[in-house]
Amino acid sequence: MGKDRRKRKEGPDQREERINKMSQAFTHLCGLTGILAGKADELEACAPEVHLLKDYLGAGQWRKDFEADEQGELGPDVDRSVLSEDGLYNLLDDLDSLMRTFKRLVDDFHPSTD
Length: 114
Fold this sequence. Notes:
- There is one protein chain.
- By secondary structure, this protein is mainly α.
- The chain has a domain at about 45-110.
- The protein is about 70% helix and about 0% strand.
- It contains four helices and no strands.
- The protein has helices at about 10-45, 45-60, 60-70, 85-110.
- The chain is elongated.
- It starts with 11 loop residues before the first helix and ends in a 5-residue tail after the last helix.
- The mean pLDDT is about 90.
């Protein structure tokens, strides 16, 4: 007939297990938050460099520089790291993927109440 809606009293072992589990999550997230906050600031400060590289690739200048290197027109002391065939594209793709992950996390942590 009617269900007993009273909560069963938890034992001290259950309480301590819950508190230990919550403390572990708390400690883990405190450490991670400190690391991520610093990296987020660093990433935010790099926004101009991201735009610079996107413009470099999108405007076709990267291709011209790549071809100049292929033709031997660059001096031996030029840092060619940006000219690797897939390096710049992969970097920008990785950054876009990271931004999608951040957006998903924002949505998960702060769900819309619509």
